[in-house]
Amino acid sequence: MQFTDLGLSAGILRAIGEQGYDTPTPIQAQAIPHVLAGRDLEALAQTGTGKTAAFVLPILHRLTHHEDSPLERVSQVAPRVLILVPTRELAAQVLESVRTYGKHTRLRSLAVFGGVGMQPQVQALRRGIDILVATPGRLLDHLGQRTANLSHVQTLVLDEADRMLDMGFIRDIRKVIERLPAKRQNLMFSATFADEVRELAHGILRDPALVEVARRNAPIELVAQSVIRVDKERKREALLHLFDTHGWHQTLVFTRTKHGADALARKLEQAGVRSAAIHGDKTQGARTKALADFKAGKLAALVATDIAARGIDIDLLPRVVNYELPNVPEDYVHRIGRTGRAGAEGEALSLVCADERIQLRDIERLIRRDLEKRVLPGFEPQQAAASTAPAPAADRRAQPKGAPRKPAPRPGKPGARPEGRRPGQPPKAGGAAHHNGQRHR
Ligand code: AMP
Fold first, then answer.
1. Is the residue at 217 inside a domain?
2. Cα(339) to centroid of ligand 1, in Å?
3. In this structure, are strands 251-254 and 372-375 parallel, antiparallel, or unpaired?
4. Nearest to 100 by CA among 41, 43, 165, 21
5. Tens digit of pLDDT for each residue in 123-151?
6. Residue 312 to residues 45, 94, 292, 304, 416, Cα–Cα distance (Å)
């Protein structure tokens, strides 16, 4: 199947060609014909599957293709397509996709989200918009001030619907939907089909086509997942050791709390690993800059909370580290979905301490498999955890025991930190013999 088989218009095909895509991803191949035909859609697809283009491409086609299109009656100012997303980052990224794929059309698009001034959004809305991407809260602000008009919306997209529900947007979503014309096309994308997602779908979608590209609640197959057992108080040291020995770059590190993200980013930075934190308390400017620096390879680590990381789209993100496991097992699936994108392999490592047994068990149940467990030589947990397996042989073979450590180069301050263990951190019992100098992999 080629993009040309899908019946998309020439300008859209040209934009896709310019992106270097030659074949539609499975979600695109399955969803695009339904959307073009005007049907409602319920799609189970995770980030990284090409889901954004799966709705953006046919929407652009329908907005620009006048014959037999129900969307041909052009309103002067009010948007005809509304794409609701959970976070500002995702809003910005979806807008970028709309503009990239729509660059040979004359369609006008805008994203409205919180954390930035209302006024520029108000002015852009007044000038006229065809495709509006929005987070629910900010959209309601505009509706309240009558600066947005949804009475011409003919297609509604709920992107990452599961996450919007997790974030407590259900009432906002319902309020927005009350403002839409009753007759419209509805497209819903979700990484999981939890019960609440199904309930929302039943309330909104009419006779939807069902499209499913991933096994239910399964993480992306391309991600190599493993668990490193480590004591809670040595996690930071273990993480630094991993950065050091592997020369990691572009590593997305997840913490559970905003405070934890800030503290970890600061400590990594102090230890010579170029880092920034991103979470909901950061200004939009700080978040945008951190993400841009990370994408540009200026940061080795971006430390993020679950909500902030939602929708981050970086091509070929090599690695995700769960510094702490999430309490909600579905978040694990979302986290590791940041890597292994669009056909590239990724790695997801979780540093797991004894306190996190329950979270680990819940994750393994959700993904229906046992994660490989290992220990880092020199960081063997002292607190017993039932199923700790020894590190696989492959992990120890690269250098003989006691070989001098040669840290790989990494961006930032080379040699800022002394070799070996952190100052003031005595080796743990049993770890001294092979504390320095293992390469793991
Ligand atoms: P998404 O799942 O929408 O976040 O998309 C994941 C990534 O895949 C994005 O970086 C897209 O640019 C890329 N992508 C989308 N469609 C294709 C395609 N047909 N071929 C190659 N890459 C694609």
1. no
2. 12
3. unpaired
4. 21
5. 999 999 999 999 999 999 999 999 999 99
6. 16, 10, 11, 10, 30
Provide CB contacts within 8 A for 318, sequence distance 6+: 248, 249, 250, 251, 339, 346, 347
Q: Report the sign of the C-alpha dihedral through residues 182, 187, 191, 194, in that order.
A: positive
Span from the CA of 406 to the centroid of ligand 1 (angstroms): 37
Do 247 and 387 fall within a single domain?
A: yes
Ligand 1 site residues, Cβ closer than 6 angstroms:
21, 24-25, 28, 47-53, 313, 315, 341-342
CA of 25 to the centre of ligand 1 (A): 8
What digits encode the pLDDT tens for the residues 373-431?
Answer: 999 999 999 976 544 444 443 333 333 333 333 333 433 333 333 223 333 333 333 33
Asked whether residue 196 falls in the same domain as residue 238, the answer is no
User: Best of 1, 25, 213 to mutate for ligand 1, by most ligand atoms within 8 A of CB?
Assistant: 25
Q: Determine, yes or no, domain membership for 432.
A: no
Gap from CA of 50 to ligand 1 centroid (Å): 4
Q: Is the pTM of this model over 0.70?
A: no
Cβ atoms of 166 and 326 within 8 Å: the answer is: no
How many angstroms does the Cα of residue 263 sit away from the middle of ligand 1?
33
